[in-house]
Here is the input.
Amino acid sequence: MAIITQISTQKKNKSRVNIYLDNEFACGMQSIVVLENRLKVGMDIDADKLKELSSFSDVEAAFNKAVKLVAKVLKTETELKRYLVEKGYSLDTIATVIDKLKSYNYINDSDYAKSYINQKRINSGKKKLYYELKQKGIDDKILDKALEAVGKQDEKEVISNLSQKYIKGKVLDVKTKKNLASYLYSKGFEWDDYIDIIGELFEDDE
Here is the structure.
């Protein structure tokens, strides 16, 4: 057993306090947890019990932050991990929070990938979609399955629409043709998928 010798509000976060046992820093936790457990200076407490309360406090605080974030905008598992690391939470706390978020289906990388692709496919090819989702930490297996839904015919239709918009009002010369090819490449489309479409648009080009 040890004695709580000091409970002080943290300077950077007024909703948290630092707790000292026998005049030595022991841990930090949410003020609400201190109140709920009636912790006070002079109280005898087991150090392991205090550590358990601190861990519980961190998980609750991290979970609430994560929920507020995903309520504003959907995030991948990796993005949420990065966010919580930046907030200073331990890896153990983050792992517990991620499992809790999954149990409530607040994060689902498979659903995220499908939604992202459906939103972006009208302006992007598979290569770009793959790269962007990979940057967000989506696993390859999830990516491959999600991208399977984008058929060749769908992509060709997108390429055709983008190409028509790109050349509108432009002179259909060699320079425009090359620039269009570069533009489609930057959008993540494969050469084999857009070369025929470009050929049809510039069929009179010498």
